[in-house]
Amino acid sequence: MTTVAVIDYGMGNLRSVCKAIERVAPAARVHLATCAADIERADRIVFPGQGAIGGCIAALERSGMGDALRASLATKPYLGICLGLQALYESSDEGGGSACLGLLPGRVRRFNAGGDLKVPHMGWNQVYQTRPHPLWRGIAPETRFYFVHSYYAETTDAGLVVGATEYGVRFTSAAARANIFAVQFHPEKSQQAGLKLLANFVAWDGSV
């Protein structure tokens, strides 16, 4: 039985993510991770979230999950959702500037509101698949997913981008490297396409 740890750092409603994974993978054991041991004994890691990146990183370090997460990211299949994507980059402009995990090159910037551009970016938008990946299997190349965010990832390595979306700027809506796959949108809120992505993740061995 595969075990899936959904990281709980004290922000946001994580139950919808757990229930969505349980729906597509009823044989998996899905649990909330609140300490390092929960991450260490899991087969795969899901890092969802909403909230402020600075508070998120601080909460991970206080709980001891920060080091366990960094170690797991070296080998275990990882799915980042929303804040779980942004946390992978070097820094974020949020809160006057916050350090992130530094696992992907680039920084997280805020959308510039104005004209017809409303912030946060909220609702359905297309994700253009920029290169193949096992988690895209069975998902059409320009499928619409559900977004809720005010900040976006600006990568400095285009080779790590597997999905892009237009909202005032063209931003990274999906990034991947080795056993890591992360998205800015919310698959748990994205109906059948989102459920398919979650099912692909549970079946994924972390290779590309």
Question: How is this structure best described in words?
Answer:
The chain has helices at 15-24, 36-40, 53-63, 65-72, 83-86, 191-203; strands at 3-7, 29-33, 44-47, 78-81, 91-92, 98-99, 106-110, 121-126, 128-129, 144-149, 151-155, 161-167, 169-177, 180-183. It is α/β, with parallel strands linked by helices. It has a single domain, classed as Rossmann fold (3-Layer(aba) Sandwich). The strands form three sheets. It has an eight-stranded mixed beta sheet. A hairpin with a 1-residue loop joins strand 12 and strand 13 (169-177). Helix 1 (15-24) crosses helix 6. The longest helix has 13 residues, at 191-203. The radius of gyration is 16 Å and the shape is globular.
Short recap of the structure:
The chain is of the alpha/beta class and 208 residues long. The protein has a single domain, classed as 3-Layer(aba) Sandwich (Rossmann fold), CATH 3.40.50. It has six helices and 14 strands.
Helix content bin: 10-25%
Class in CATH? Alpha Beta
Low-confidence stretches: none
Number of domains: 1
β-strand amount: 25-35%
The major sheet is characterized as: 8 strands, mixed
Corresponding CATH superfamily: Class I glutamine amidotransferase (GATase) domain
* CATH topology name: Rossmann fold
Shape: globular
Radius of gyration: 16 Å
- Compute the average pLDDT: 95
**Class based on secondary structure composition and strand pairing:** alpha/beta
Helices and strands, in order, run as EHEHEHHEHEEEEEEEEEEH
Adjacency order of strands in the biggest sheet: 2-1-3-4-14-13-12-9
Tally of DSSP β-strands = 14
Distance between the termini: 22 Å
CATH-defined architecture: 3-Layer(aba) Sandwich
Quaternary state of the chains? single chain
Q: Quickly count the helices.
A: 6
